[in-house]
Amino acid sequence: MNWITKLTPPGIKDIFTKKDTPDNLWIKCPKSGEMVFSADLPGLLHVTPAGHHMRIGPDMRMDYTFDNSEYIEVSIPSVAKDPLKFKDDQKYTDRLKKARAKTGDDDAMSIGVGRIHGIETVVLVQNFAFMGGSLGMAAGEGLIAAAEHAVAHKLPLVVFTAAGGARMQEGALSLMQMPRTTIAVQRMREAGLPYIVVLCDPTTGGVTASYAMLGDVHLAEPGALICFAGPRVIEETIREKLPEGFQRAEFLEEKGMIDRVVPRSEMRKTLAQILAVLMQAEPTRDYVDA
After folding, report:
1. What is the per-residue pLDDT for 209?
2. Structural domain boundaries, residue 84
3. Closest CA to 248 of 203, 214, 213
4. Which one-letter DSSP state was computed for residue 17?
5. Which of residues 31, 52, 73 is at a domain's end?
6. pLDDT tens digits for 152-207?
7. Considering only Cβ atoms within 10 Å of each terminal Cβ, which end of the chain, N or C, has fewer?
8. Which residues are CB-contacts of 160 (< 8 A; sequence separation ≥ 6)?
9. Based on the domain organization, do 24 and 143 belong to the same domain?
10. Are residues 19 and 150 in the same domain?
11. Does 73 lie in the same domain as 33?
């Protein structure tokens, strides 16, 4: 308590109440350090003026991808809850409850069906905000459900990946999703349907080692970290300094690991052009220059 507070008569301080300011009114750009007004971000597709592509959830991703932000959600089959009764510093079931309360989603995968420049497409979005987008049984079922829907309706599948790898709380059951999702992608290929992967920040671990790198075409958002083991782990293992930008989207494009780095503002148009070629379809004219 300072001397001004001591001299202030009782009740006076209640007259001049301090207005609450939201904690998220301004966002600091990780790339430039510039403060960005939060209300401006939706109009910028959540890309800062310096070009940093912020991580976004399934709802925003679907809105930015589909024509007029219109799409139909596809449900994902339910899976066993906490089959291993896993507990570290807290129960796995408690972690799931917190992640669901935080994101409003049941798990890391969301499926939507809509049109991209008039071409009907199945889109699967992996949500990094849900336990790091980790690949568990529910996430595996999500990709399989998306592929099955695409095959059943003869539609292309676009997957936006973002994950820290497999979900350790599910042990071997999590690792089993790698071959299961690989088989789902193979069924897309056997059906002659396009499977396009958009690698978002970050895409790592078992996700990179399975369906994330099995696309017919691989796109990536600028600056996305794409790897199996992260650069810090590699540096500590080989005891050498890695090249600048190692494992970032631009570095991998230069080395031929991905096809193209595409800014978020151009992603919908780019996907439409690729889908039009692979599906031998004509994009709706209303959206050609969108």
Report:
1. 95
2. 55-287
3. 203
4. P
5. 52
6. 999 999 999 999 999 999 999 999 999 999 999 999 999 999 999 999 999 999 99
7. N
8. 61, 123, 124, 125, 126, 198, 200
9. no
10. no
11. no
DSSP state of 88: S
Q: Where do we find the tokens 């031929």?
A: 256
Sequence-distant (6+) residues with CB within 8 A of 155 are 113, 120, 121, 122, 149, 193
Cα–Cα distance, 174 to 165 (Å, whole number)? 10
- Within 10 A of 153 (CB to CB), how many other CB atoms are there? 11
Please give the structure tokens belonging to residue 40: 């401006």
Question: pLDDT of 6-55, one tens digit each?
Answer: 555 665 555 545 555 566 789 999 889 899 999 999 999 999 999 999 99
- CB atoms near residue 96 (< 10 Å): 19
Helix (H) or strand (E) holding 233: helix 231-238
Rounded to the nearest 10°, the torsion over CA 234, 235, 240, 242 is 80
Q: State pTM to two decimals.
A: 0.88
Asked if residue 146 and residue 126 are part of one domain, the reply reads yes
